[in-house]
User: Which sequence fits this backbone?
């Protein structure tokens, strides 16, 4: 039986070229890049070259690239590290209600500890925050605004460039963007964006797990989360993972080279899937559902979120799995939770709809034919569940 992996938002497969690079480096460059001997110096040269590669593709300076273990660490470091370096009076932070857990729970933890005052901003029915709400929430004590680039459940694009422009009038406020789901899917240049901190995670764009980066605007200092050997300019201690860093840089280069072609292809896949779903009345599209260019400006090309109200999502997921189709529910890190999706509740959906969602996310391997197969499997699964409902009644 053929299998179809539609869970790229959770993790994407590594291209063979990246696997080969990482394997070769693990065999040949195992020295600690902080060591003073020649093997260590050679390893650090590879790190420096990879740092320059990441900077080039993101439109940053090499000195602004900080290597971390991935998106969760980068998001926590951006918020906690910045707050620890700000004046004691600047302890107010602003986040949107649809942030990834590594931002939202980080902010809630700080609030519970009494370390900050927190403002959580609402979103509209498509899941987009209003930049005017952000400006209205700013105080003289505001230290940081954190708004993600692309929502990891619905794929809704946040207006980060507009927010960045508006925040230029508030130089005491730093702007953090979780870009984990945007890199390789949307065009973005760090230089001139108005963003002060930007998070990336390698395994979302064809790199290995356990490695990521945080872009940190020149002049900004972050207090480290980890005490240790002062690597990464004292902001992130720990032995640098040379093979993973180099593999991430290569994966980023490969994904950026195909960005425009990927966007065009994936928007075509998304349109076709939404067209098929429109013939399945039991399924509801969460986020941006319209099929026009204005709507697509608010929706990432690689994500479709669907709800079957009243049906547990794991039932749908396992029935699709039996058909060789792999999708997910909520974000991967929240997929085992029995609670309704916080993101879908924030969009104004009731608990039934927020509890019954599945997320479909595309990759480079997918074609229109794959979407046709997916659509047929969705129709078959829904029909089977409807018949079971009738029997149950």
Assistant:
């Amino acid at each position: 039986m053929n299998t179809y992996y539609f869970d790229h938002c959770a993790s994407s497969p590594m291209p063979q070229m990246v696997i080969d690079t990482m394997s070769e480096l693990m065999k040949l460059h195992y020295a600690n890049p902080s060591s003073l001997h020649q093997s260590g110096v050679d390893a650090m040269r590879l790190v420096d070259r990879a740092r320059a590669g990441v900077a080039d593709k993101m439109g940053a300076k090499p000195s602004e690239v900080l290597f971390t273990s991935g998106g969760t660490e980068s998001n926590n470091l951006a918020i906690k590290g910045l707050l620890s370096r700000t004046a004691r009076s600047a302890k107010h932070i602003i986040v949107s209600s649809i942030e990834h857990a590594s931002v939202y729970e980080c902010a809630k933890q700080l609030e519970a500890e009494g370390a900050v005052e927190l403002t959580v901003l609402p979103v509209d029915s498509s899941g987009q925050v209003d930049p005017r709400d952000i400006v209205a929430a700013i105080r003289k004590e505001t230290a940081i605004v954190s708004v993600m680039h692309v929502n990891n459940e619905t794929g809704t694009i946040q207006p980060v460039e507009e927010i960045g422009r508006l925040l230029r009038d508030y130089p005491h406020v730093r702007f953090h963007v979780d870009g984990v789901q945007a890199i390789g899917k949307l065009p973005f240049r760090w230089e001139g964006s108005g963003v002060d901190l930007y998070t990336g995670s390698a395994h979302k764009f064809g790199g290995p797990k356990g490695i990521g980066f945080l872009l940190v605007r020149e002049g900004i200092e972050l207090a480290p989360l980890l005490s240790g050997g002062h690597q990464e300019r004292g902001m992130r201690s720990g032995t640098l993972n040379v093979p993973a860093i180099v593999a991430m840089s290569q994966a980023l280069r490969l994904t950026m080279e195909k960005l425009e072609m990927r966007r065009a292809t994936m928007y075509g896949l998304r349109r076709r899937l939404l067209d098929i779903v429109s013939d399945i009345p039991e399924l509801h599209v969460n986020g941006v559902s319209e099929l026009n260019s204005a709507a697509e400006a608010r929706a990432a090309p690689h994500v479709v979120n669907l709800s079957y109200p009243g049906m547990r999502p794991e039932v749908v997921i396992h029935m699709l799995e039996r058909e060789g189709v792999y999708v997910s529910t909520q974000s991967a890190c929240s997929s085992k939770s029995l609670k309704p999706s916080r993101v879908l509740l924030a969009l104004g959906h009731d608990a039934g709809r927020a509890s019954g969602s599945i997320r479909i996310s595309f990759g480079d391997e997918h074609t229109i034919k794959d979407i046709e197969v997916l659509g047929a499997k969705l129709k078959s699964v829904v029909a089977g569940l409807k018949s079971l409902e009738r029997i149950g009644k």
User: Anything to note?
Assistant: DSSP finds 13 helices and twelve strands in the chain.
